[in-house]
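Budget justification note: compute hours in this period were largely spent on complex prediction jobs such as the one shown. Inputs:
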Amino acid sequence: MLKSATNRIDGQKHSMAKRIEQALLEEIGTGDLGPGQRLDETGLARRFGASRTPVREALSRLAAQGILVQGEKRGVFVAEYSREELSQIFEAMHEIEAACARIASQRLTLLSRSEIEAAQAACVAAAESGDRPQYLRANESFHLAIYRATGNPYIAEIASEFRRRTGPFRAKKFETRDDLLASARSHEELINDIFSEDSATASRSMRSHMTASFLETLKAN
Amino acid sequence: MLKSATNRIDGQKHSMAKRIEQALLEEIGTGDLGPGQRLDETGLARRFGASRTPVREALSRLAAQGILVQGEKRGVFVAEYSREELSQIFEAMHEIEAACARIASQRLTLLSRSEIEAAQAACVAAAESGDRPQYLRANESFHLAIYRATGNPYIAEIASEFRRRTGPFRAKKFETRDDLLASARSHEELINDIFSEDSATASRSMRSHMTASFLETLKAN
DNA sequence: TGTCACAATTTTGTATACAAAAAGAAAAGC
DNA sequence: GCTTTTCTTTTTGTATACAAAATTGTGACA
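Corresponding output:
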């Protein structure tokens, strides 16, 4: 086994630990790793061709962000939430997202407008071709673009964190091509309301978007 | 050196890594470890009588929470923010804390009322005796009690996280006994407005509390 | 004096080893 | 049959070793 600190045999720029963290995040985001699934250190180490040390670091960091939970029984698990907990998480997201929409609408620049539009275009394209993984990524970019438009990386980070945490649950509601198209369409309204630069409208619109998203998520879980 | 997984020679219930994390959090919260200060793995390992492994885990988790930053230059540092960044962080806190106050005022129970009152009593006591470290803890408890009163652990966690991040900066504004007394007094208004169970008033009151806190923090840094 | 090269040192990331704890399985008792 | 007890296996937490990278120090040379 290589002992190189930064194993670059496959052209990655990050350390092994960061790469594992990213890879797990991706798999959790797409729902490949579902809620409640157990992650065993040795298995992951073997899978990534690394030792337990970097795996451990990745798991520990993901647990610190609430994406994984450890220690309830034995092992580390993808966080699994009851309906009650899910409802609380969405309430929290509700608040953050509404704040993001409000602030974004107040600080909108030409750049952030075009970023949001570009992300939305990608959403529509992915939805029309029915490419689920691509849509998931595009949808993520769309919301990230709104967060970034606040000009406040700290709020943006919190919002992203909640998005990552709820990823595996939200992922389940995107099954058919129509699900993707419906989601993409619901973005349009939101965009209009944020671009209106009326912060109250923007905030209200995001709240209604989030409520709808929550209800669909509940149905799918 | 002992190889025991859970070194309990000094009657601690947690693993070494968690203990180190807690200890560092405490030192950062009180300002003993100031912003920008470097934390070297080997040194900490020696200090805690452990190896680099658990130190590394603690640092990594604290970094994942944004309390430490790593990799800018060499080493891990207590996060240090410019005025611009501090202002953005406080803007984010502003939103979260206002949401907390609003929700708390809507869901107030007898239990959470009494928890808030008890914490405030401890604040007043510590302020009057001019016990700075004790006041810092009591103040923390006071705000945590408000967060808990939302009944939503996820919002509460985000709010706590911001509180921890800004801890070393806010700590600097508590120097004299009068600082402590002034802070304790400002809690009274806030309590009244939250206990009024009018959510708009509660939210507005928290915003003004946060604005004041921000201005004082800026002055002290 | 400044700057470039290169050697010495420190710091990081990872691998591996191992002991304690926990979980699971098998055996003994009632 | 159902508990309890003891033995085995797995899993965790930590220590230690080591190589690659980064930093610092040092001296040659212009």
